[in-house]
Design goal:
434 Repressor (Amino-terminal Domain); 5 helices
């Protein structure tokens, strides 16, 4: 059960990354280059397919988008009552 919850959290977080990136009018390539990674690696990360980004990666993403790292984790609460 924990693995499923972990993956759900990562999926929400990476959807938030996508939302913030689009708000900043940045492409996946823009962020990838600023982070020093290949575009396909960032695409896979953003899609949350097997993603488990490190804190260092999250810092790079936040710096690339000129936002605070906490913004990557501040996604809207859902209505399930479990909003850790």
């Amino acid at each position: 059960m924990e693995d499923r919850e972990d993956q759900e959290f990562i999926t929400k977080m990476m959807a938030n990354v996508r939302r913030l990136r689009k708000e900043k009018k940045m492409t996946q390539l823009d962020v990838a280059v600023a982070c020093g990674m290949e575009e396909n690696a960032f695409q896979k990360l953003e899609s949350a397919r097997g993603a488990n980004p490190t804190v260092k990666t999250l810092l790079k993403i936040s710096r690339a988008m000129d936002i605070e790292v906490i913004e990557l984790l501040a996604f809207p609460k859902d209505n399930s009552g479990d909003n850790r």
